[in-house]
Amino acid sequence: MLILPNTDIDEAIEISERIRETVESNEFEKVSKFTCSFGVAQLSENDDIYNILHKADLMLYTAKNSGRNIVMG
């Protein structure tokens, strides 16, 4: 989990995308290909910790179900 204070949803997606691209472009010992997916959610006034984690988790599973190695927000 990343917590990015003073970052809007578009910036958070951009940061996540850069991390995803970096992971994908590196070679890891004993692993032929390594990728990652990200679910991004923005905290609103009405959110508590459970609600924001649930939103991010839903976005993560949307990314995984959409072919993996994706950022969804």
Task: Describe the protein in words.
- With 73 residues, this protein is mostly helical.
- The two termini are 14 Å apart.
- The chain has a single domain, classed as Reverse transcriptase/Diguanylate cyclase domain (Alpha-Beta Plaits, 2-Layer Sandwich).
- The protein has two helices and two strands, in the order αβαβ.
- Helix 2 links the parallel strand 1 (38-39) and strand 2 (71-72).
- The model has no long low-confidence stretch (mean pLDDT 92).
- Strands 1-2 form a two-stranded parallel sheet.
Labels describing this entry:
Alpha-Beta Plaits; single chain; 5% strand; 47% helix; 73 residues; two-stranded parallel sheet; mainly alpha; 2 helices
Residue share in helix: 40-55%
Poorly predicted tracts of residues: none
Task: Describe the oligomeric state of these chains in a short phrase.
Answer: single chain
> How would you write the strand order of the largest sheet?
1-2
CATH homologous superfamily title: Reverse transcriptase/Diguanylate cyclase domain
Output the CATH class name: Alpha Beta
State the separation between the terminal residues, measured CA to CA.
Answer: 14 Å
Give the total of domains. Answer: 1
User: What's the overall average pLDDT, rounded?
Assistant: 92
Structural class: mainly alpha
Major sheet: 2 strands, parallel
Q: Radius of gyration over alpha carbons? A: 13 Å
Question: H/E element string?
Answer: HEHE
Shape: elongated
* Count of individual helical segments: 2
